[in-house]
Here is the input.
Amino acid sequence: MNAEALHLVLINPDEVPDQAKRAIMGQLFPFCGAAFANGVKRLQITAMPEEDAKTVQQNRFYWGVVLKEISEQARIGGERYTADAWHELMKRQHLPRRIKKTRVAGKKRPVVTTTIGTTTGLSVRKMSKFLEKVMAFASTDLNVQFSLRDWEGYQ
Here is the structure.
């Protein structure tokens, strides 16, 4: 949360009315009051389902099992690569690219840039799909044998 935004999360469906009331009275009203007192003219409030970001467990599994075992077993042209190099390849192959249009002074049209996707901020579901794609590719195309296949059982 920064000075310009308030992030509230309601997590227990059985207690949502009580949680919502406490959050609105204890956090939202004071936040809005302070913003208006500081000259803010309008506030936008949005409520939507929250999706968990990838878990620490998924990330540990990805680096500690998947990329580690790919870097130990896989070769391209007889050469081994680091886990970081494999991570770059997997992002390029299995994550969507992001396209950004930016207005630049002196240019009539927006400048278009493309960046490689990132695992940062992926939801649990999207990270699970990414892991499945990476492991399927490594198994079929690189002949990698994984010691574990399920991130949920990884410590």
User: Anything to note?
Assistant: The longest strand covers residues 98-102.
